[in-house]
Specification:
- The chain is an alpha/beta fold.
- The chain has one domain: 3-Layer(aba) Sandwich (Rossmann fold).
- Helices cover 39% and strands 10% of the residues.
- The protein is built from 17 helices and eight strands.
- The strands form three sheets. A four-stranded parallel sheet has the order 6-3-7-8, with helices on both faces. It has a two-stranded antiparallel sheet with strand order 1-2. It has a two-stranded antiparallel sheet with strand order 4-5.
- The longest helix has 14 residues.
- It is globular and about 50 Å long.
- It starts with a helix and ends in a 12-residue tail after the last helix.
- 44% of the residues are buried.
- The N terminus is likely disordered.
- It holds the Pfam family Sulfotransfer_1.
Length: 342
């Protein structure tokens, strides 16, 4: 179901498991451990200095898509990745509710058992397919050591998804978010997540976003590519704004897609546990277990606001008008529509 921008672009006077950067242990005890044998994660912690050196990256190009250079170096391994028939892929453009959807899916897979979903950080429970920051930080390696059924996270545009996901007919859930909120969230994420280069001013970042000169490229190409693919493949296409408006309805859509039934009480537990307020204070979901050299929550929390329409607090009138025109041009001819605010 889409939402038409003609009715909801917003013309007021003023205006993201996301991208996972690296896996670090979810507790101080594990941080101190010399072995990772008992952990799902494939990572041995790097020293703060090594992490700082390893992660700040300029963008390279992967088949025309701007991407972190270390991810590009790891691409052959990602391209050759062997999906399993019972894998479920969670796909999003960055900052589009990835961690939220990942937490919901992990809760569904564990029948609403909150304690099981606190077993590890979300970036270990739902490994990030194309992650490659160093020899120790590798999504493919982590996934190969994850028992089935696996939840897999990606931000890849549809044309770059490893072919094994199509060959094995894996179920895929894609969640899209309106671009105005995405760009603001992505800007703050660039500031706090240390893999990114300096985003510059908000105005500069907005220009780069509109031009597709940010990690994972054009938001427009990404959401449209996956939207068009769902006509031929087993893809459930969700909208962040629908999830905000009526999470119960969207969870029921997911359950129907999975062919799974849960009691009303279990669904209530999932909705409560995955509310923004609960996730924000949950170390297994809010990325606070990341070292400050990877994510600096003092600059901006990973789970920042979790609302629709925050762009109105940031866009100028001129920026909003220009963005609306640009949006209409690039979305012309598509029946994919977004709500810019609730």
């Amino acid at each position: 179901m889409g939402h038409c921008p003609r009715h909801s672009l917003g013309t007021g006077s003023s205006t993201t498991p996301g991208t996972v950067l690296a896996q670090v242990p979810a507790s101080s005890e594990v941080v101190k451990a010399t072995s990772r044998e008992d952990s799902q994660c494939c990572v041995d912690p790097l020293s703060a200095m090594e992490q700082e050196d390893a992660i700040r990256q300029e963008l390279g190009s992967l088949h025309g898509i701007p991407l972190y250079k270390s991810f590009i170096e790891g691409w052959p391994q990602v391209k050759a990745f062997q999906a399993r028939p019972d894998d479920l892929l969670i796909s999003t453009y960055p900052k589009s509710g990835t961690t939220w959807l990942s937490e919901i899916m992990d809760m569904i897979y564990h029948n609403g058992d909150v304690e099981k979903c606190r077993r590890d950080a979300i970036y270990n429970r739902v490994p990030f397919l194309e992650l490659k920051v160093s020899k120790s930080l590798c999504g493919v390696d982590q996934l190969e050591n994850t028992p089935s059924p696996r939840l897999v996270k990606t931000h890849l545009p549809v044309q770059l998804l490893p072919t094994s996901f199509w060959e094995k007919d894996c179920k895929i859930i894609y969640m899209a978010r309106n671009p105005k909120d995405v760009v603001i969230s992505y800007y703050y994420f660039h500031q706090m997540a240390k893999i990114h280069h300096d985003p510059g001013t908000k105005a500069e970042f907005l220009e780069n976003f509109m031009a597709g000169k940010v990690p994972y490229g054009s938001w427009y190409d990404h959401v449209r590519g996956w939207w068009e693919k769902k006509r031929e493949k087993k893809i459930l296409y969700l909208f962040y704004e629908d999830m905000k408006k009526d999470p119960r309805q969207e969870v029921q859509k997911i359950l129907q897609f999975l062919g799974k039934e849960l009691s009303e009480r279990t669904v209530e537990s999932i909705l409560h546990h995955t509310s923004f307020q609960e996730m924000k204070k949950n170390p297994a979901a809010n990325y606070e277990t990341m070292l400050p050299t990877l994510m600096d929550h003092s600059i901006s929390p990973f789970l920042r606001k979790g609302i629709s329409g925050d762009w109105k607090n940031h866009f100028t009138v001129a920026q909003n008008e220009r963005f609306d025109q640009h949006y209409q041009e690039l979305m012309a001819g598509s029946d994919l529509c977004f709500q810019m605010e609730l």
